[in-house]
Amino acid sequence: QSAAVVRTADGGCMKGSVSVCLRAGTLAFGSVALTLSASHIAACSGRSKCDVPSASMTLRGGGAEAIQMPPIMYGTAWKKERTEELVTQAVTLGFRGIDTACQPKHYYEPGVGAALAKLEQAGISRSSLFIQTKYTPIRGQDPNNVPYDTAATIPQQVQQSVAVSLKNLNTSYIDSLVLHSPLPTHEENMAAWRVLETFVQQGVIGQLGISNCYDLSVLQAIAKEALVQPSVVQNRFYKDSNYDKDLRAWCKERGIKYQSFWTLTGNPHLLSSPPLRAAAKRLSKTPEQVLFAFVAHLGVTPLSGTTSVEHMKEDLQVFQGGLGAPLDLTADEITAISRLL
Questions:
Q1: CA angle 156–160–164, rounded 5-degree value
Q2: Quick one: which H or E segment has residue 275?
Q3: pLDDT per residue over 25-70, tens digit each?
Q4: At 205, is the secondary structure helix, strand, or coil?
Q5: How many helices (H) and strands (E) does the chain have?
């Protein structure tokens, strides 16, 4: 019997009892699964150390996330020609997570790539940033500007989309790749998902997710058949979907991160509510800051799409500069605001 030894980020080793030579992919240990790339895995007999580079891994079933998603993300939808400028500004101020998509209709992905290059020159390395992009199905694209062959099969479209994203972003890997809305059928969802799984197995993509998925059964069907489990769901956080209460609960049980967009603009009634304004007064913060802190206490990772430098700074202050715990709301404040959902 061999011992699979994987070096962790701090230089230590994790040792698991397995009887196989590991290759890239997802390895299940009961309810825990490790997603590893080939260059980061060593199989040996009786050795206590390995001499491969630090491993990047995702533990499922209650384990710790090694692909670290920041507590707040900067969203780049609708930024167009200002994308490079705004992403550069956001990261310089403290944002470490960037959300984009291979969808020219709503995103300018090359602008994110240009910002990454500029930031690298300024001393902020690509490896310090969490970059998330998306494969957008045809129905979500501008028919006059689709970034892949519209006549191709879904697997081919996904392959082409990922290749375009890597080129646009000027990177060799993507931390998180999201299916940008479910496809019309489960079979089509899985056709796309299987291709994305191969990129995870190759170490090109760190984790997978889905956005605009408001039907829990769709997510459950994907998870049931997926070799690489969903790691993130990104949805609009608003009352029309009942704030995805059932979906968020299901995700929380399985360690799936829930990202919210439209968190501020979709909830003017929360921003003006007495409980939220009372918390803002106590903390000497804005209602917007308190709402971001509130959703974070629910386990939600909000996206900020602001173009204001001042608002960027305020959003980062909620999370102690962008990477820390959210503002400390009391249990009574969280309960009072929760009643409004």
A1: 170
A2: helix 274-283
A3: 444 333 334 444 333 333 333 333 333 322 333 333 223 334 589 9
A4: strand
A5: 11, 14
